[in-house]
């Protein structure tokens, strides 16, 4: 169903007759088809006018009902004929069900056996069985929706009607909602738990219960009571109602009214139950002899009439004249004199109130001229109070016009304000206050409306009541004020509102407890903070002498204890037994609390009234760790020194990290030496001959083209910027060939050996002359080492990042080098789920650009002696445009001769580094004596830790507490570890597979191990195509390390992969030295029966190579995946298996389908090409999708800040082994889709290719299951794409073309008022912009809940808004094709649909858990 209904006038086809019934937003009328004369029912559904309106039915709900009705065809279910639509309504033409309700029909019988009842129930079950077989849940099964097709037939047929709440159940996604009729809903609905088909079976149980007894099992006097009964499953088989009911019938009901949906009978179980399908004659006879309680059932049917909104008028007219005459008399009687008919009226009124049925209530009260509307129900509650609890102001007005008193109380003394406050109805409270309803009325327990609102956490109600002068200090019978209620239940927002209203924060209850004591005992640290902020007495005690600290310790509330101690709570105060908080903690054996109290200088020797010290109590209960701790603290006055170690000093952090990036030969090492040295350095400055630039810069792959076979050439010279008339199928034409040549360092292969070159990451502590101390991390420009950079390049927000590039290169090459390294920093920065205003990065990395070799490039000098680079301004502008939102880039480009240590240019760089260093250190925490102790202890720890310098944070905490300071907490040590990380002393490694692992000696891994393992001097692989190494060869590269543990570390870092079938072999893709062009696809004998397809994954925003050796990591993951697919295969040294690797390539074979994975376009794209036999179209698609998923998962985990898109390869040109190959971009598909085309023009080949062949190998089953570009839901947009839209649309636009107008165009005007209130122009508050959420993100999040929220609609709205830039970005970044492979049988084709790309099967945690 596409949501488009027949727009023609329904009356042209049908003659509309009398009304058959009506609901809140629908009217059902009889109609007759003008041509055939057949009778039908026309259901006129009022459409909701706008998204914010509550009147009418939403388009989404109408379409869901229609889609379900179109899908079902069963004798016991109403059928849909057709659907019309006009401006205000949708009209469903339905089968005419004219026999009335089943219960009305049965109520007219004089007697009814259970056997007869089961005949009707069996029809209901048959209908439900059909629905459940299609995974459809009705969710509103009740007597009103069980109808008869024709009541005069000998065997009337049941019809289930009203599918307004029905849903198709998706077992892969939890569905929760609160809807339905309270009397019949299942407990999982009431408790807002995941819903399924089981909810219908509960309703069947309730219907059966009513049918047999005439009683409703859970019905209460109001909606809340009914729902409470349902949730508690509070029902019994009362003898008054079930005296004639068989045991089988009760068993049938009992098996349905089960709270746990999993234990409830299914529809299949129900149909096989012996009450429905007797297994023997005795069971059949029992059913025949048992009867329905017709007397009670008739009364139930009559009572139910009163609460049916569509028939209230006729029901009132059917009241007997004698009843009406009695109603016209004075009925101001007490409960015990009300006869059954008067109770009947009260129940009708209450049901009308609970159902928000204003018209029905008006009609009902209009027929009762002198009825006393103020008389209470049997629980003592007048109707006005029930209406106030339901929050319907219209009903309150109806009741008041009938004479309801605004000041009425229930039998407990509560008034309407109390009821409205309890249920959170602020608008109702506002109305009641205007009508002079008293605010501070106390019920019999002394509670006010503020008490009940605080107890239920209704912060809006509390705030409103406080603003209209409700008294926040009125105490109830237990002497508790509303603040006690909030403190007990943990509602911090309520507590803050009461404190701000002037509530007495030190008020005590009968037990002597203040709100602070209550919150401390309950563990609500945010409330404790609020109360202390509002001057709560920290030393206040209860009647037993317990302070807040005592109670928090007794209840083991560690966070509260730390909070109270932080605010200088008296830790040595004794209770009536003489116990301090330390006594209690020692007796309970709570070591963290003992440590915290001792750290606050508690008196260790203070005895209680029994003469026992805290240590005595710990010893008596054998809490040895505590005894040991206290003993240490008593020795030589160590306690004060331990405490002193935790106190911050005036000393600032001594050093931060300085990281240097740049291609090989950029001058990183030279610049570092210049920065370190003083004036004497200039006299010994090393000069370079101009002719050595060729050895310093490896030649570009484009200029030294290897002999490449045409079929899989990675380089397409001259075709990267193909420009065609209709569309651009490749990269943006503005990019020049020169840019492409420099972006990828990965194609230059392994550089020749250079003893002077930096290997991996060179780490040293250095003092930069005139600046200060740094931990310098110099990252090698050699691409073989880049696969290890993701853990270290962007792991510290306090570091300064220098990016160097040589001015000897052309301008495009310079820009390319800068873009590569800055893109790496950006890509390694994970995005935050909560997007702030403008898509800003809250703490961006600091980057400084340095241009070297100015002397060799002949850059002129200015009069002041500085180099003057004419392209400086243009280059900085371009770089800031690309990365200004993600990185903190210095305003100046530093142009210099890196070897001239005393030049003005180097001095200016030193000054700038000094400014940056001072700013960073000012934000860092001061150094504590503990940090200094750890710095001194680190060398010994490194020595003790053995060959592998890894340690878990937990082990680190334990070692520090055992050996250095027993009082330090884990949170404190985490911050100390972070400080040591910032200083470069240790490195905290974090990823999906590595959590809280400390690298005690970064030089060991980054310089020694990786520098040797990945060095160009490493031995050749024993296989010419795979880079395979024997275990002993790896051991030889790192002789001092435990090779097994080392390989687990490298495996977790995606640097190598162990062969599961041959553990003695290790794959290290970064060391592959051989080209693999002979692995290309060649023409096959069965070429005509082969199908081809492929995808190219490319960065969306910046045309640059993938950083961090991504392709090497992908090869590692492909090896793992291949091993996982066929782990049982025996492997040997010479076994090819199902995967082959070569430089920049891999080939995977699985079940007759082949995939080639290539690094192409100078490292700017990963290409996945797949071919298989014509009979394996689904398998081919599944393999392609699997490898794409592996690659995208790897990208998400390794480069979380890099946005990529799928481009699609021409299947025809892949088949023809054509080079270059046509690339179809997302915008090509979307533009064609908008023009209602289903194919694209291959401008190279001069023919058209269908979407199906490009996207799904021509597999119709997969293609039909997929969603194409414009239909992809907005919720599927990647987080990075949404953040980019926020950057475009958040800032206020002078012409209003920003998120505000977009919100109004999308029908979400309420968001405009909500998010425009920060400042008059909608910009974030200038003092704290990072705290302001992005309004565009909120808009997209809210709109994504709407059914029409697709990428295509969003693009249209953006173009209407005049924001072509945002629409064009979506064209580049949106997914083209989304399909659930498992839904089309992909899982059965031999592949797992996804792989944990980027996630190792080994964990570093296993290495350090010794």
TrEMBL record:
Any one GO CC term of the record: nucleus
Name the record gives this protein: non-specific serine/threonine protein kinase
UniProt keyword terms in alphabetical order: ANK repeat, Apoptosis, ATP-binding, Kinase, Nucleotide-binding, Phosphoprotein, Repeat, Serine/threonine-protein kinase, Transferase
Q: Does the keyword Repeat apply?
A: yes
Repeat (ANK) residue spans along the chain: 379-411, 412-444, 445-477, 478-510, 511-543, 544-576, 577-609
What cofactor does this protein call for?
A: Mg(2+)
Question: What biological-process terms (Gene Ontology) are attached?
Answer: apoptotic process; cellular response to cytokine stimulus; innate immune response; intracellular signal transduction; positive regulation of apoptotic process
Say which family it is in: Belongs to the protein kinase superfamily. CAMK Ser/Thr protein kinase family. DAP kinase subfamily.
| Domain Protein kinase, first and last residues per copy | 14-276
- Give residue ranges for domain Roc: 649-920
**GO MF annotations in UniProt:** ATP binding; GTP binding; protein serine/threonine kinase activity
Among the Pfam families in the record, one is Ank_4
User: Where, in this chain's numbering, is ATP bound?
Assistant: 47
The organism encoding this protein is Oryzias sinensis
First-level EC class:
transferase
Residues forming the Death domain are 1293-1374
């Amino acid at each position: 169903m596409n949501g488009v209904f027949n727009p023609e006038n329904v009356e042209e086809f049908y003659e509309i007759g009398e009304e058959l019934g009506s609901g809140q937003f629908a009217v059902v009328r009889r109609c007759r088809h003008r041509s055939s004369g057949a009778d039908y029912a026309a259901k006129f559904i009022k459409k909701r006018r706008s998204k914010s309106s509550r009147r009418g039915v939403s388009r989404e709900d109408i379409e869901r009902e229609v889609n379900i009705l179109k899908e079902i065809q069963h004798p016991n279910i109403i059928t849909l004929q057709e659907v019309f639509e006009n401006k205000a309504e949708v009209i469903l033409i339905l089968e005419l069900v004219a026999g009335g309700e089943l219960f009305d029909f049965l109520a007219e019988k004089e007697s009814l056996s259970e056997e007869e009842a089961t005949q009707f129930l069996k029809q209901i079950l048959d209908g439900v069985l059909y629905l459940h077989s299609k995974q459809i849940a009705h969710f509103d099964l009740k007597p009103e929706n069980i109808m008869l097709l024709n009541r005069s037939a000998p065997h009337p047929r049941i019809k289930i009607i009203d599918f307004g709440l029905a849903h198709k159940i998706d077992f892969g996604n939890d569905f929760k909602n609160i809807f339905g009729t309270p009397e019949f809903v299942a407990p999982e609905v009431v408790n807002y738990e995941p819903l399924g088909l089981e909810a219908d079976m509960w309703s069947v149980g309730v219907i059966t219960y009513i049918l047999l007894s005439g009683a409703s099992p859970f019905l209460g006097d109001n909606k809340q009571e009914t729902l409470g009964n349902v949730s508690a499953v509070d029902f019994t088989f009362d003898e008054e109602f079930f005296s004639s009911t068989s045991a089988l019938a009760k068993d049938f009901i009992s098996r349905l009214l089960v709270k746990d949906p999993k234990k409830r009978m299914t529809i299949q179980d129900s149909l096989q139950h012996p009450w429905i399908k007797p297994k023997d004659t005795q069971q059949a006879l029992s059913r025949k002899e048992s009867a329905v309680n017709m007397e009670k059932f008739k009364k139930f049917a009559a009572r139910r009439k009163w609460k049916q909104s569509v028939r209230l008028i006729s029901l009132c007219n059917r009241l007997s004249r004698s009843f009406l005459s009695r109603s016209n008399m004075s009925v101001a009687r007490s409960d015990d004199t009300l006869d059954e008919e008067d109770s009947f009226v009260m129940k009708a009124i209450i049901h009308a109130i609970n159902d928000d049925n204003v018209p029905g209530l008006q009609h009902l009260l209009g027929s009762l001229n002198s009825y006393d509307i103020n008389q209470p129900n049997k629980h003592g509650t007048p109707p006005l109070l029930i209406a106030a609890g339901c929050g319907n102001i219209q009903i309150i007005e109806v009741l008041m016009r009938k004479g309801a008193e605004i000041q009425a109380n229930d039998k407990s003394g509560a008034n309407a304000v109390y009821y409205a406050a309890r249920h959170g109805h602020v608008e109702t409270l506002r109305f009641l206050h205007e009508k002079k309803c008293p605010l501070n009325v106390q019920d019999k327990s002394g509670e006010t409306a503020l008490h009940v609102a605080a107890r239920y956490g209704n912060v809006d109600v509390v705030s409103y009541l406080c603003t209209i002068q409700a008294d926040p200090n009125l105490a109830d019978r237990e002497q508790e004020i509303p603040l006690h209620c909030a403190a007990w239940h943990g509602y911090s927002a309520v507590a803050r509102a009461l404190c701000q209203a002037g509530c007495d924060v030190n008020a005590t209850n009968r037990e002597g407890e203040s709100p602070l004591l209550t919150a401390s005992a309950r563990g609500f640290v945010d409330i404790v903070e609020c109360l202390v902020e509002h001057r709560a007495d920290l030393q206040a005690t209860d009647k037993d002498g317990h302070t807040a600290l005592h109670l928090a310790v007794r209840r083991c509330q560690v966070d509260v204890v730390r909070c109270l101690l932080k605010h200088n709570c008296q830790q040595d105060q004794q209770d009536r037994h003489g116990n301090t908080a330390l006594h209690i903690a020692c007796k309970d054996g709570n070591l963290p609390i003992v440590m915290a109290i001792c750290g606050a200088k508690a008196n260790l020797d203070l005895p209680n009234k029994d003469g026992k010290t805290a240590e005595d109590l710990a010893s008596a209960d054998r809490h040895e760790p505590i005894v040991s701790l206290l003993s240490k603290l008593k020795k030589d006055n160590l306690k004060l020194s331990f405490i002193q170690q935790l106190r911050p000093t005036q000393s600032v952090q001594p050093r931060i990290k300085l990281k240097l990036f740049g291609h090989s030969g950029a001058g990183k090492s030279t610049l570092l030496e210049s920065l370190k040295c003083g004036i004497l350095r200039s006299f010994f400055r090393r000069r370079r001959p101009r002719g050595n630039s060729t050895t310093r810069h490896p030649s570009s792959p484009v200029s030294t083209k290897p002999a490449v076979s045409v079929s899989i050439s990675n380089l397409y010279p001259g075709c990267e910027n193909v420009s065609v008339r209709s569309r651009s199928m490749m990269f943006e034409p503005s990019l020049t060939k020169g840019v492409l040549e420099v972006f990828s360092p990965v194609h230059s292969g392994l550089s020749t050996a250079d003893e002077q070159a930096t290997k991996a990451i060179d780490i040293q502590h250095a003092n930069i002359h005139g600046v200060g101390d740094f931990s310098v991390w110099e990252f090698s420009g050699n691409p073989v080492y880049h696969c290890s950079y993701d853990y270290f390049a962007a792991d510290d927000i306090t570091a300064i990042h220098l990016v160097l590039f040589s001015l000897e290169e052309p301008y495009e090459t310079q820009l390319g080098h800068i873009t590569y390294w800055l893109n790496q920093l950006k890509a390694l920065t994970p995005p935050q789920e909560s997007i702030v205003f403008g898509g800003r990065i809250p703490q961006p990395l600091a980057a400084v650009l340095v241009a070297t070799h100015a002397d060799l490039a002949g850059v002129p000098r200015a009069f002041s002696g500085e180099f003057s680079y004419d392209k400086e301004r243009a280059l900085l502008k371009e770089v800031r445009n690309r990365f200004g939102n993600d990185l903190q880039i210095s305003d100046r480009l530093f142009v210099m001769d890196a070897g001239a240590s005393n030049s003005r240019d180097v001095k200016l760089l030193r000054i700038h580094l000094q400014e940056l260093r001072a700013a960073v250190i000012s934000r860092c925490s001061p150094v504590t004596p503990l940090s200094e102790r750890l710095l001194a202890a680190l060398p010994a720890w490194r020595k003790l830790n053995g060959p592998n310098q890894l340690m878990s944070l937990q082990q680190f905490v334990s070692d520090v507490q055992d050996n250095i300071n027993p009082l330090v907490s884990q949170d404190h040590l985490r911050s100390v570890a972070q400080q040591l990380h910032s200083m470069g002393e240790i490195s905290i490694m974090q990823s999906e597979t590595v959590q809280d692992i400390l690298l005690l000696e970064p030089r060991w891994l980054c310089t020694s191990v990786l520098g040797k393992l990945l060095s160009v001097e490493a031995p050749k692989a024993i296989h010419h195509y795979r880079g395979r190494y024997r275990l002993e060869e790896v051991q030889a590269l790192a002789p001092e390390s435990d090779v097994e543990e080392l390989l687990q570390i490298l495996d977790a870092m995606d640097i190598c992969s162990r062969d599961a079938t041959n553990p003695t072999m290790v794959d290290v893709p970064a060391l592959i030295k051989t080209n693999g062009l002979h692995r290309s696809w060649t023409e096959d004998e069965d070429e005509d029966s082969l199908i081809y397809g492929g995808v190219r994954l490319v960065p969306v925003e910046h045309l640059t190579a993938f950083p961090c050796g991504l392709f090497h990591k992908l090869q590692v993951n492909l090896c793992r995946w291949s091993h996982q697919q066929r782990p049982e295969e025996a492997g040997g040294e010479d076994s090819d298996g199902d995967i082959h690797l070569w430089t920049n390539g891999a080939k995977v074979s699985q079940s007759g389908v082949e995939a080639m994975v290539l690094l192409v376009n100078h490292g700017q794209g990963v290409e996945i090409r797949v071919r298989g036999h014509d009979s394996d179209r689904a398998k081919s698609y599944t393999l392609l999708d699997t490898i794409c998923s592996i690659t995208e998962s790897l990208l998400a985990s390794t480069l979380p800040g890099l946005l990529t898109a799928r481009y699609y390869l021409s299947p025809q040109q892949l088949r023809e082994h054509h080079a270059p190959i046509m690339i179809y971009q997302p915008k090509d598909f979307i533009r064609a889709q908008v023009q209602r085309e289903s194919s694209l023009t291959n401008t190279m080949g001069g023919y058209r290719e269908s979407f199906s062949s490009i996207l799904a190998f021509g597999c119709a089953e997969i293609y039909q299951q997929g969603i194409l570009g414009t239909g992809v839901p907005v919720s599927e947009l990647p987080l990075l794409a949404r953040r980019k839209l926020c950057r475009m649309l958040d800032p206020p636009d002078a012409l209003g073309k920003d998120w505000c107008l977009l919100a109004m165009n999308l029908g979400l005007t309420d968001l405009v008022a909500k998010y425009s209130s920060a400042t008059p122009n909608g910009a974030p508050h200038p003092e704290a912009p990072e705290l302001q959420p992005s309004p565009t993100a909120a808009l997209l999040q809210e709109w994504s809940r709407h059914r029409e929220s697709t990428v295509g609609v969003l693009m249209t709205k953006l173009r209407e808004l005049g924001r072509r830039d945002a629409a064009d970005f979506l064209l580049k970044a949106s997914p083209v094709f989304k399909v659930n492979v498992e839904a089309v049988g992909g899982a059965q084709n031999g592949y797992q649909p996804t792989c944990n790309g980027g996630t190792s099967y080994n964990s570093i945690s296993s290495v350090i858990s010794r």
